[in-house]
Specification:
It is a single chain. Helix content is 21%, strand content 30%. It is of the alpha+beta class. The chain has a single domain, classed as 3-Layer(aba) Sandwich (Aminopeptidase), CATH 3.40.630.30. The strands form 2 sheets. It has a 7-stranded mixed beta sheet with strand order 1-2-3-4-5-9-6, sandwiched between helices. It has a two-stranded antiparallel ribbon with strand order 7-8. The chain binds coenzyme A (COA).
């Protein structure tokens, strides 16, 4: 397994690199950059970096700091997948003292197996989601909203 370096906090992220990673996902590829940036700035950010200090992975958590967090935008550069970077991100999330004891939620189409070792279980038929037909960016232009299935931690 590669020896990835994990950094936390928006100030330690390479925001343009994160936007490039998100542009290649099925859920955020149509998100305008200003929306991605605003989401990062208002989240707890986790990044994975290679030996050249190049950011190759990202995840963020949105939380009320009291009861619940929502895990979003978990992504690893395609060429670096399958070498533990996703698990490095999830370990950082699991070890974040700010999230300890909080209910965790996430939406995924097919990556349940990444999250299950960290305590997330499938919610089955109880998941509900308000899915607007379109979200608007800062200029009022609509863009696609993400879809998926829900997981929560026990
Ligand atoms: C999902 C993703 C972040 C995993 O990153 P990664 O660096 O390849 O993950 P790791 O090498 O640390 O290992 C991932 C583990 O999760 C498992 N896994 C389960 N579902 C998976 C999926 N859809 N994609 C990749 N791994 C998955 C793998 O099998 C592996 O477990 P194993 O080692 O026991 O076989 C990466 O594949 C990715 O960016 N995919 C595209 C974006 C995406 O789908 N993100 C998740 C959105 S909810």
């Amino acid at each position: 397994m590669t020896n990835w370096k994990v950094k936390t906090g928006f100030d330690n992220m390479d925001a343009p690199a994160v936007c490039r990673l998100l542009e290649n996902t099925y859920w955020a590829r149509e998100h305008p950059k200003d929306v991605m940036l605003r989401a990062m700035q208002n989240s707890r950010c986790y990044g994975v970096f290679d030996e050249q200090d190049r950011q190759i992975g990202f995840a963020r958590a949105v939380t009320d700091d009291a009861t619940v967090f929502y895990l979003a935008d978990v992504v690893v550069e395609e060429a670096c997948r399958g070498r533990g970077a996703g698990r490095a991100l999830m370990t950082a999330v699991a070890n974040d003292p700010a999230l300890k004891g909080l209910r965790g939620l996430l939406v995924t189409l097919d990556a349940h197996g990444l999250y299950e070792p960290y305590g997330f279980v499938r919610s089955g038929p109880s998941f509900m989601m308000k899915k607007p037909e379109a979200w608007n960016d800062a200029k009022g232009n609509p863009f696609a909203a993400p879809v998926g299935g829900m997981c929560y931690n026990k």
